[in-house]
Recover the amino acids of this structure.
């Protein structure tokens, strides 16, 4: 694949630098935030407990704090998801990556799934909402239903994966959503994206944002190409 | 290994039947609860969203509803963990399996870890508390510190694993805790326990409760031995 220097020079703007492992220390969170400041990523994506710490480091920059909600199983209650989302915004998050209720969806309780998302979004206006549907567990038909529900919810992005399921983002799913969505929603690809070529392939397929924890390796590859 | 018929006949009382996968449907939850009623397990262990449904099926039985809190990463905030615990008890849980704050522990912020547990326990009196410390991420020394902190918190059980880390329960960890705890706390082994011999080995090592989703296979092995 060939890509213009423009994309390579701006690839940082596509990246949510993900730091979601449970064993990450406070010092490591700080290091990741400084790294994100250096490269001006779109955001640092963290668990709720780390939101405040990230905000303190990132608050005077363009790098957003992105906090996950109901992560990674999506099976807390609606009430708790709302409280977690609201608290995360109070703590400095301006982007929320919300795991939808996978059990309700697989039970064909689409009304519950959509209403939960709508309520969370209603309670956290003025922030960016990305809905994680965990494609690893969905049939082809369900991936299409998922897109419809997430568009209906009013979210800004549909996001493929948590990175904690058996399988991460699939390029074909991004292409499918891109062709069906007619730009009514953006797409975030995440899970198993570990090198520059994969990042570029997902962007080429239609992804507007990339979630990855292999950011250091990817940016080294970018620097090698740009220099 | 040889074991008395007594243990085999009562092995159901050791088992928390775990149904924690995010894609489980409402109907499957019901089936799992009926299965637990048939075999009279200690509990059915579920995500918060499924607590009410389980309670409706199990309420007139000896089988407890066990709900996980902050599961599986332990990195929601203290405030949200308390709310999740309280709500789960309101919804019918009488046992709570709480993931402690792994990041705070790895950052040596033991005060935060212990206070969080104490506050959750204070807000949910009269239920059984099991604290998941996720041994997969702990050094030998940290496993000993973990035991001390969980005993200090006032919890009833220390629990090895979520089942979502790279590694589950280790028999040596259970032996270590059994020898050090002097019966000040009970032990729940979980994660990767998939057959009767493993269940028996963990009980023999000192486990008081076993968390497993391979319950059907295990009970078939028991039935084969007892008949």
């Amino acid at each position: 694949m060939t890509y213009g220097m423009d994309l390579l020079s701006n690839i940082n703007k596509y990246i949510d630098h993900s730091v979601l492992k449970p064993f990450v220390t406070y010092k490591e969170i700080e290091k990741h935030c400084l790294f994100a400041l250096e490269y001006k990523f779109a955001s640092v994506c963290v668990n709720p407990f780390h939101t405040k710490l990230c905000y303190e480091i990132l608050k005077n920059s363009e790098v957003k704090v992105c906090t996950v909600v109901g992560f990674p199983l999506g099976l807390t209650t609606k009430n708790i998801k709302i409280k977690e989302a609201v608290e995360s915004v109070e703590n400095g998050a301006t982007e929320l990556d919300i795991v939808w209720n996978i059990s309700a969806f697989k039970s064909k309780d689409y009304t519950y799934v959509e209403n939960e998302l709508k309520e969370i979004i209603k309670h956290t206006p003025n922030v960016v909402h990305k809905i994680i549907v965990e494609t690893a567990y969905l049939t082809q038909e369900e991936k299409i239903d998922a897109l419809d529900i997430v568009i209906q919810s009013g979210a800004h992005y549909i996001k493929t994966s948590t990175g904690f399921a058996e399988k991460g983002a699939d390029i074909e799913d991004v292409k499918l959503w891109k062709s069906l969505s007619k730009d009514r929603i953006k797409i975030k690809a995440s899970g198993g994206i570990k090198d520059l070529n994969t990042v570029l392939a997902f962007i080429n397929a239609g992804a507007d944002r990339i979630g990855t924890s292999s950011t250091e390796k990817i940016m080294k590859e970018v620097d090698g190409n740009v220099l």
The two ends of chain A are 18 Å apart (CA to CA). The longest strand of chain A covers residues 64-69. Chain A is about 45% helix and 15% strand.
